[in-house]
Structures are given as structure tokens and as C-alpha cells.
Amino acid sequence: MIKNLLKLTISFLFLHTLVFACRYTVREIGFADYGADSYHFYLFKDKRISDKDAADFKKISYAALLNVNVSVQIINVDGTDSLSVMKFYKKDSSSKLPSAVLISPEGRAKLFYFSAKKKGLKESIWSALEEIVTSPAREELLQKIVKSYGVVYLIEGTDKGQTSRARKKIEEAIDKIKMIMIDLPKPVDHPPELIVVKRNNIQNEPVLLWSLGWKKADKSEPAVAVIYGRGRRMGPLLKGDQITENLVQNMLRFVGADCECGLDRTWMLGTMMPLRWDSQRQSEILHQYGFDADNPIVVSEMSQIL
Asked: pTM for the complete prediction?
């Protein structure tokens, strides 16, 4: 009797999980913040940074990083705390010491150098923080990501012919998605959007491109990133010959799939880019899809699926 009841209970829980798992798509799961996608910005407090400067940094970062997936911390270079971060505090080829470092959820680092001579330290900090959380290509994404199926970034390469071919493959993949959108588990009104980061605008997108895994060494080849949800990257950054219509289409198909138990969690929950996600975006999701992606109960439900 007890064994049968236990089996029945387990069966019920299993079936409940399967039904529960179909409540959201991968795309919808991607709109929530599960607390594991934060970037960390560390200020190195050495003889160049006074106590007042450190206090100003705290105030500025609190205001600049409101509704942003970036946390901040001050590292005393003479202390023993955060030794793993101190490995980035070293002179570069020009013998300059970094003022701060941004660490991605994937463990990659981007160094920042403040110059109080050209402009005040406060202004340098503000500029760095704004560079971290916003840029033209990210603002364009924020205008499109909630209503559309997703966004495909095309980063132009210096090889114009290869870049043109890559764009054609992306457009073909988007056309294929348009044909199946009505048959998706949850139909979407607006197809994927293409955002092109042009060669002459790459210097305006250092943090975005770094967060996507792009490097200056890649500049000759075009690169493609499929973005969904709260600025999450689906799969890897595709470069050069890796960019095929079939691969881009399959990555986009995954975005529209049901969040069933058998799906790979690492693909369901791609790394977010540094992004300011304010109440306007939250309201758009509630209005468009009928759930609040920042509600703790909803986040808990999604976490159980994951």
C-alpha cells in the first residue's frame, strides 16, 4: 500500500513537472533574472584613490547601476581580500596600472584606466559606468527585444564580401522562422530583428562586444550573436565560416521552444549582457505576456523548471 502510494505520488510529481515545464518557452524563461548573471566591477584602491574618491565611487555607482546586472566592490590593494581579483592589478605594456576591472559571469575580464589629468575622477567613473551599461546597439535592442521574437546582432568584418554573405544567411534564417512562428508553442507577432554593428561604430560598443565574446583579433571576419529575453546570448558567438543559415535558424528555433525537462539548461539560460533593465521593460513583459518576470513567485517557478 505504502509502495503503491509512493509510486503514485512520484508519478504525479513527474507528470506535474512535465505540465509545469510547458508553461513557459525558452524565450520567456530568458526574461527573468536568477541572480547568477551579474557582472562585477572592482575599483582598485591604491595611493591614487583617496578615501573621498572611494566614497564618491560608491555614491556614483549606486546611481549609475540602478536596475543593472552589475555589482561593485572596492578592493584595497594593500589588503589580502579578493586575491583572485588582484591578479588583474598589474602593469600593461605601457607600464600603466588599471584603475578598475569588470568581470563577466563567464570569468572574463575587461580593464579600465581612469585619468584624473584629462578630466576629473568623478567624470571618469561616470563615463566608465555608462560605458558598461549602455551603448547605441544595446539601446536599439531594448526597443525591440520584448515585442519581437528575438534579436540577431551582426558585427561587420573588414572583409566586405564575407560580411555580405553572412547577412544574407541571417536574413534567410529569419525568413524561415517567419514561416513557422504561427505554429510555435506560443506564437509571437513580431519576427526576429536584425541589428547591424557597423565597422565604423565598433569603437562605440567595447563592452557589448566584449560581453558577447568578440575580440579585436576577430575584426576581419563578421560575427553573429542570437539574443533573446533579458539580453541573453543563445549559444556561442558565431564567426566567419561558422555563420550558416541552418545554424542561425536552429538557434532561433530553440528560442521559441517549450522549456521541457530534457532541454539543456546551459542553452536555455544564456549569459546576459550588461544591461539597464528598468520598470518600463518589466511593464511591457506583463502587458505582452501576462506574467511579471521580476515577481519572486514567477522567478521561483521558472527556477524549478531549470
From this structure: 0.85
